[in-house]
């Protein structure tokens, strides 16, 4: 958890700036600073929106594609639409992480809302003996002793010192390495043993004159600036170190986009309604202009959309394929194997795999997930203890009530379906009912990834995501 000590810590970096003093060519930093950068990969999307808004304030916080409006929509959605208040809370405040132990030992921890591990302890009956069950799941919140049938009490565990590295090296992700690591302007990290050609290529150096090195000091505020700029700029180091303000917001505001002409989708590519079941999304379109008005989907699709706020940045990039969502974050992720090859990472607890493909805490993913994310395995418990959930009565990964239909705007704001509201919208926009046509899409893994990727970079995520679906797959569901 972030505290005053974290915010007081400062890092010393040596930076090399071009002759025009307009761009940081690269920086050299020690292990502690690099570990904080690496921790960006582990942050859930909902946590990023929350910590940036807390730091910058509502008016100055960056607009993070459609993720910000998705988060705001959940915040404003009446709690009556969720199974419990707890379902809403775990989306807005992802309070558990699979990296909670590591966060405690970072020099600066920006994930300031981590809930400590809790244990279910003895029920109080002497004949039951001592039962203690440690639980990091967001799903399991109730434990019952099957011997005496009593509910077990909950206790917050005392924080334990992280032993990812031995005490001699003292690192969180990286072991002791005296040589500084090189960091490009777009956050590509190079090991100290990288060769000349690899270094020049990855740092993007084209001029032998790298200017005069200068020492700079970065603290908590600058780390927050780096997180923000890594999401919105192609040159985050230059923006922060040279105090450039090249990007005013993560994504420019834009009008609802135009869909591709439906005639471009081959009819023989249409999927019959009897094919394998997928999530269904109905898209309402202004026929004369092909402009997307809004989409409509049931609770299963909304649960998929909402659960994306719990997905860590690194996990998103792991399913993005050859077209990364965010270049800087993808560079951080691609740097992990290079650092491992430099033999400065202590491979305790499968560090490489955990950073390259961060898992969600147990409880966020539904039984039949549409996206290939994985969650932390919740180990088996003693046979005399039964775990259950009061916050998720409908099951794991089930947040909103159903069966119900919901409206989804182009920026992924979700509201309950209301015919009157849509008719009023058409009246305000002077659109006739006869000018509205409906496109029904089947959403599988590829389609879900397209929408999720679009949500990072566009305030018209539905338009961009649906256009990507039409161009790549043409998956239109035939009307019944």
Describe this structure in words.
The chain is an alpha+beta fold and 480 residues long. The chain has a 5-stranded antiparallel sheet with strand order 8-7-2-1-9. A 5-stranded antiparallel sheet has the order 14-13-11-10-15. The longest helix is centred in the last third of the chain and has 15 residues. The radius of gyration is 24 Å and the shape is flat.
List the helices and strands and how they pair.
Blueprint: H1 4-8, E1 11-17, E2 24-29, H2 31-39, H3 45-56, H4 67-76, H5 85-92, H6 100-103, E3 118-120, E4 133-135, E5 142-145, E6 154-156, E7 181-184, E8 189-190, H7 196-203, E9 214-218, H8 220-232, H9 236-241, E10 279-286, E11 291-298, H10 299-307, H11 313-319, H12 327-341, H13 351-356, E12 385-388, E13 405-408, E14 414-416, H14 419-428, E15 436-443, H15 445-457, H16 461-472
Antiparallel strand pairs: 1-2, 1-9, 2-7, 3-4, 3-6, 5-12, 7-8, 10-11, 10-15, 11-13, 13-14
Quick overview:
The protein is of the alpha+beta class.
Enumerate the strands of the largest sheet in spatial order, edge to edge or round the barrel.
8-7-2-1-9
Task: Label the structural class.
Answer: alpha+beta
> Which outline best applies?
flat
Radius of gyration over alpha carbons?
24 Å
Record field, number of beta strands: 15
Low-pLDDT stretches: 161-169, 245-255, 262-277, 342-347, 473-480
Task: Provide the residue-averaged pLDDT.
Answer: 78
- The end-to-end span amounts to 53 Å
